[in-house]
Amino acid sequence: MAYPSTSTAAREDWEGGTCVLTYEALDVDAIVRSVRNDSAGATAIFIGTTRNSFKGKVVTCLEYQAYSKLAIKTMVQILEDARKAVSQSTHQPLAHTVPAHISSTIHHRLGTVPVGEPSMVIAVSSPHRKEAFAACERILEDVKEKAQIWKREYYEGAREEEAEWKANNC
């Protein structure tokens, strides 16, 4: 009996942002444009790419899998938590209506990601750089720690069964 894959493309849009799991190549420019806002003076971006080595081994590609239904919910919660945690800038008067964190997005690749290609893009817009950087870093660390996404590293000269599955935070 064949079981359906739990690693499927998924997308969740909500008021403060978007979370995407996809088998498609990530369009960094489009992702950054998706958080643009005229109230934002800063956009912080993290682009995680497949590197060509790990602990002296030559990496040929990474393969990502996820428990997508749960991972997308976790990613939305991470964005919501970051939005609540980033405090108002000291540059803004207390009565100012623009939030410290305007919009954010996480896009994560599934499947095979060749060396040099993005596997994850996070973009955060904010009125000021300090809050944009703080939110972006928090989102990154939380995705790597909490999202139900795993990677498998393939090494040059190694058989497929020697590829290593790892938590996404390695």
TrEMBL record:
<protein>
    <submittedName>
        <fullName>Molybdenum cofactor synthesis 2</fullName>
    </submittedName>
</protein>
<dbReference type="InterPro" id="IPR003448">
    <property type="entry name" value="Mopterin_biosynth_MoaE"/>
</dbReference>
<dbReference type="InterPro" id="IPR036563">
    <property type="entry name" value="MoaE_sf"/>
</dbReference>
<dbReference type="Pfam" id="PF02391">
    <property type="entry name" value="MoaE"/>
</dbReference>
<dbReference type="GO" id="GO:0006777">
    <property type="term" value="P:Mo-molybdopterin cofactor biosynthetic process"/>
</dbReference>
